[in-house]
Amino acid sequence: MVMNGVETEVTKIKFCSPVRYADDMLVLARTNEQLNEALEAIKNFLKLRGLEVNENKTVIVNIETGFKYLGYFIREYEDITRQGKKGYGNKKGVVLCKPSKEAIKSIKTKIKAITKKYANAKASTLIMQLNPVIRG
Predict the structure, then answer these.
(1) Looking at the predicted structure, is the pLDDT value of residue 90 above 60?
(2) pLDDT for the residue numbered 8
(3) DSSP alpha helices (H): ranges in 12-58?
(4) For residue 15, what are the contacts with CB-CB under 8 A and spacing of at least 6?
(5) Residue 24 phi/psi, 5° resolution?
(6) How far is CA 110 from the centre of its chain?
(7) pLDDT at residue 125 above 80?
(8) Residue 14: CB partners within 8 Å, gap ≥ 6?
(9) What phi, psi does 101 have (nearest 5°)?
(10) Is the confidence at residue 82, as pLDDT, over 80?
């Protein structure tokens, strides 16, 4: 609840779009200057509430490089099917959101542990145990 309202501060900056889930926040912007301005706004917002930004987790990165957010890897890939076509404009490619390698490994580990534990159980029991893990 302490973070409620930080989105409003960030949206005051031109071309900045915040995405927040609990205490995790992602800010999308066109330029690094806008991102730095948004970071300062966030720092000021948190300072008034006795909090601070974790510098170790705070990263400014280009979408073409990609980044991890909430167990997903988000990156813009070049769209080779549209290169050189008229009307392409400033659009550079396709943004893909895939589960991160760490998230996939974690789910595989959980599934393996459950299948070992319930190896001799009925199929329905095994399915009941696996469903929450598979659904997330």
Answers:
(1) no
(2) 86
(3) 32-47
(4) 29, 30, 31, 34
(5) -95, 135
(6) 22
(7) yes
(8) 34
(9) -60, -40
(10) no
Q: Given its phi and psi angles, is residue 42 left (phi above 0), alpha (psi -120 to 50 degrees) or beta? A: alpha
The per-residue pLDDT for range 34-79, each reduced to its tens digit, is 999 999 999 999 898 898 888 888 888 888 889 998 889 999 887 7
The DSSP line for 62-78 is -TTT-EEETTEEEEEEE
Q: Please answer whether residues 60 and 36 qualify as being in contact, where contact means their C-beta atoms are separated by less than 8 angstroms.
A: yes
Which residue, chain included where needed, has tokens 């991102």?
A: 35
One-letter identity of residue 87: G
Q: In 108-131, which positions are buried (b, 16+ CB within 10 angstroms) versus exposed (e)? A: eeeeeebeeebeeeeeeebeebee
Question: 18-36 pLDDT, tens per residue?
Answer: 888 888 888 988 888 999 9
Burial of 84 (0-12, 13-18, 19+ CB in 10 A): exposed
Tokens of 136: 């997330």
